[in-house]
Amino acid sequence: MSRQPVAYPADFSLPASLAEQKAALTFLCNPNAPSGTLVTLPEIEKLARSLSGLLVVDEAYVDFAASEGASSIPLLSRLPNLVVLRTFSKSFSLAGMRIGLAFAAEEIIAGMMKVKDSYNLNRLSLIAATAALADLPWMGRNARRIQRGRKD
Q: Global pTM?
């Protein structure tokens, strides 16, 4: 299996040739790093439907996106080939914990569980992740604080 990078156009819009690669696995960082450009949900849905393989959307910075509702998670119910990755490193400010989440169809998650390490998170990381998820309003305030800091 080979890796085939696809160059973004100068405006960082979604490359038209992305779906033409016939890849088993396509990665999309949304919002894009470092440009910060955001691919809309209709564009992501169109791309996922045009692919024969999986579309993995890395949403590490989505909580900092200017528009609300930027996450691809709502598309999961209609797109069986979509995987959405999230991290606690950015908007939850837990970078040292190395905690991530994957959202996908049950069949894809079952396949991932077959190859995952049995102890991929330590107890402290699990406690931190649970506490962070229990206080989503704090995460929202934290993300907005970071957004304001970037504007200064």
A: 0.89
